[in-house]
Specification:
The structure is a single chain. By secondary structure, the protein is α/β, with parallel strands linked by helices. The chain folds into three domains: 160 residues, Rossmann fold; 167 residues, Rossmann fold; 107 residues, ANL, C-terminal domain (GMP Synthetase, Chain A, domain 3), CATH 3.30.300. Helix content is 28%, strand content 26%. The chain has 15 helices and 26 strands. The chain has a nine-stranded mixed β-sheet with strand order 2-1-11-10-12-13-14-15-16, sandwiched between helices. Helix 4 packs across helix 5 and helix 7 crosses helix 8. The two termini are 42 Å apart.
Length: 539
């Protein structure tokens, strides 16, 4: 594929050009509905015009909290057309976390599903810059928006989407303008918003097309949420660039996955670790062998990857990427299958080193910290929004220190060896142990707490908390869960909880979480489990 000149790397330009090239060709399929490239562009232009009419200006930040649907895609495109910045918010966010995302990002508007509006009502006073709330109605809603707030103006989605289309002559963004701000899970403190320029997003999409061999004949299926970088940046944008078709699903379902794959005749898809495990543990069926899938982008590749390929007749591809940096390595369908557990080799646009604690390279095969540099301007992220000092602190000796551990083999293939100790990966979600601990410590009876991952059923990690009570206090564990639930995303709330007289500490006063984890996993069936106590969390 010919490299797109730097000054032409904007999503707005790509959308216009592909609408002209592919016209009536299907771009998006969604439960029996189909939208052509031309229709996708026209619908996005209408929303873009409506956003401008509502007062949203180029380079302003707009937060988005919507379920998977075609309108979510058009909104992302519309914001790109007017040069505004999209701030995707995890749909599970509530309380302090929701307020933080809206406030720290300087969002002037929030496009939100009707079902999430009450969450915003709780934190409106903490988001003084957020002046507009654009509400997408529930399926049973009449379309009339009757919400009101003290400071935010409420607009119905139809008021935005029914505007006349944006002119093709309207000035668009520059390649260097920020397209998205994606927030991390906050593994080393508060969540950080990584700035992704237009040029970066388009160049990354091009690497997907080049390495994985996507073409205009492909149908690319995704059931991952649009607020994650994977669905938009690993599926929608590469499909747009390749002239392919996107098959969008509302969410992942183990029982429906292969049926949906077959119905849309998908040729490509992406799977996260929990999805892989659920599909692997499912009873074999005819549907899992009658599909048209060529490749599945799997992150990370499991131990049973070779058996997975054989059972499901699909080639696994993979990568190593960091929200703070972007794409570093890719493992394509033509790479040696004996390297399938790797994340591939470093891209030409990236330098990757495995360094020890003194920032010295370790020998091939030895584990050290994965550190990155970019070799091409605008290939990587442009730093953290309003946190330049935090960004600079991660660039010791001109290397971005990822906090991830890994090793390189003799052929230069990267093998992931473990995540930052404060990061918990649960069913595709990155969870900051520090953020969960911060909430639990607010409970009046808690003296100290350590949050960590434990391996439970389905070969997956679950969140566990070891809690120390204040002297003279006692804690009802069910009540502690109810205390946590309104203040964090449902997937962050600990499933397992234990009460301890004290936490094990190192000589320098740091909690030895590995000891807590090792101890808990030997007796997990005896540890208090909210699921066993019938506590269900609102999503």
């Amino acid at each position: 594929m010919k490299t797109i000149p730097l000054h032409e790397r904007t999503l707005a330009r790509l959308l216009r050009e592909q609408a002209c090239v592919y016209g009536d060709k299907p771009f998006l399929m969604y439960y029996g509905r189909s939208f052509s490239y031309a229709e996708a562009y026209e619908l996005s232009r209408r929303i873009a015009s409506g956003l401008l009419a509502s007062g949203i200006q180029p380079k302003q930040h707009v937060a988005v909290m919507m379920e998977n649907r075609p309108e979510t895609v058009w909104l992302n495109f519309a914001l790109a057309l007017i040069g505004a910045v999209t701030v995707p918010i995890n749909n599970a966010s509530r309380g302090d976390l929701l307020a933080y995302y809206a406030r720290q990002s300087d969002a002037v508007a929030l496009v939100i599903d009707e079902s999430f509006v009450e969450r915003f009502a709780v934190v409106e006073s903490e988001c003084p810059l957020l002046k507009r709330l654009i509400v997408f109605p529930d399926e049973t809603d009449s379309g009339i928006c009757d919400h009101s707030f003290a400071h935010a103006q409420v607009l119905a989605w139809d008021e935005i989407a029914d505007a006349p289309g944006l002119s093709d002559d309207a000035p668009g963004p520059e390649y260097s303008d920020t397209l998205q701000i994606l927030y991390s899970s906050g593994t080393t403190g508060v969540s950080k918003g990584s700035m992704i320029a237009n040029a970066t997003a388009i160049r990354a999409a091009q690497k997907h097309v080049e390495v994985y061999g996507y073409t205009s004949e492909d149908i690319m299926y995704t059931c991952l949420p649009m607020f994650h970088g994977n669905a938009l940046n690993c599926t929608v944008l590469p499909a747009l660039l390749a002239g392919a078709t996107v098959a969008l699903s509302r969410r992942f379902s183990t029982s429906q996955f292969w049926r949906e794959i077959n119905e849309c005749k998908a040729t490509r898809t992406s799977l996260l670790s929990a999805m892989i495990n659920f599909l692997w543990l499912k009873e074999p069926s005819q549907e899992e062998r009658s599909h048209s899938l060529k490749t599945a982008l799997v992150v990370p590749a499991p131990e049973f990857a070779p058996e997975f390929e054989q059972r499901f007749d699909v080639k696994i591809t993979s990568l190593y990427a960091l929200g703070d940096f972007g794409y570093a390595t890719m493992f394509g369908p033509d790479d040696p299958r004996e390297k399938i557990r790797s994340a591939g080799r470093p891209l030409p646009e990236v330098s990757l080193a495995i360094l020890d604690d003194d920032d010295q390279p370790v020998a091939p095969g030895q584990v050290g910290q994965i550190c990155l540099r970019t070799n091409e301007a605008w290939f990587a992220r442009q730093g953290y929004y309003k946190m330049p000092e935090v960004w600079v602190s991660s660039l010791r000796n001109y290397w971005l220190h990822t906090g991830d551990m890994g090793r390189l083999d003799e052929e230069g293939y990267l093998y992931f060896a473990g995540r930052n100790k404060e990061l918990i990966r649960r069913r595709g979600e990155n969870i900051s142990a520090l953020q969960v601990e911060e909430v639990i410590r607010r409970h009046q009876c808690v003296a100290d707490v350590a949050v960590f991952a434990v391996r439970a059923e389905f070969l997956e990690d679950e969140v566990m908390a070891s809690v120390v009570c204040r002297e003279g206090s006692n804690i009802d564990l069910a009540e502690l869960i109810q205390f946590c639930a309104p203040q964090m995303a449902y997937f962050m709330v600990p499933r397992f909880v234990e009460l301890l007289p004290h936490l094990p500490l190192t000589a320098t006063g740091k909690v030895e979480k590995y000891k807590l984890r090792e101890s808990a996993e030997t007796r997990l069936s005896e540890v208090w489990d909210r699921e066993q106590h019938g506590i269900r969390l609102e999503k």
